[in-house]
Amino acid sequence: KVSYSVGTGGKLLNVTDGVESQRYLRNLSTARLQCRISSRWSVTAVARYTPSLPSLSQLSPVFQQSDNVEGMTGTPGLKPSETLSGRLMLRWTHPQGWYVIVSGGEMHQFHPIVYSYSYDPTRDLFVHAAQNAYSWDCLWAFGEVGVRELWQRLTLSLQGACYHYNSTGTDFSHTKDNVTASANAQFHRKGLMLVVVITYSLRI
Q1: Region 132-152: what's the mean pLDDT?
Q2: How far is CA 168 from CA 27, 36, 70, 118, 133, in A?
Q3: 10 CB contacts (<8 Å, ≥6 apart)?
Q4: Where are the strands (E) in 37-97, listed by range?
Q5: Rg of the chain in Å (alpha carbons)
Q6: 162 to 105, 173, 200, 202: CA distances (angstroms)
Q7: Cα 91 from chain centroid?
Q8: What is the pTM of this model?
């Protein structure tokens, strides 16, 4: 009734411009635990650690012009962005195809990579440069109820989710909330399939 898995690995990036060289080594790890409470109820918990290494353009100090309006330059000392996330999901299923899913979780990024914009009068261009912010957080909850293969022809589902975002940096702090809802219907018969999707999203 209980199953679990643990995985780990590594990610290596070596960057050199002929004068300076930088090497990034980060760990990749995932832990998963699943417990079947009964024939209809199950619980799943997942924790994941994932680094996101900066691209070569984000690390290069060489100016690159995108068009006649803006250009970009990298930051050689840019740190990798590291994400720690967790998710807990409760699931109920019925032999006749009905199901309910309730889940929630949190995602936290350490020194995420963002872009700052400024105007360079010597080039007469707007220039954006990659830099590390302090943190980025997302707290979320999700729910879904539906039925599969009703009368062996119809699948219905209702979904709802809410998200709370927060980000901070050297000179900024932002908060945003987002609520989404959707209804899905899928009908099939003798090779004919009809799909209807209705979606609603509200950003605060």
Answers
A1: 92
A2: 25, 39, 25, 19, 6
A3: 25, 26, 27, 28
A4: 41-52, 64-65, 70-73, 81-93
A5: 23
A6: 11, 20, 12, 9
A7: 22
A8: 0.77
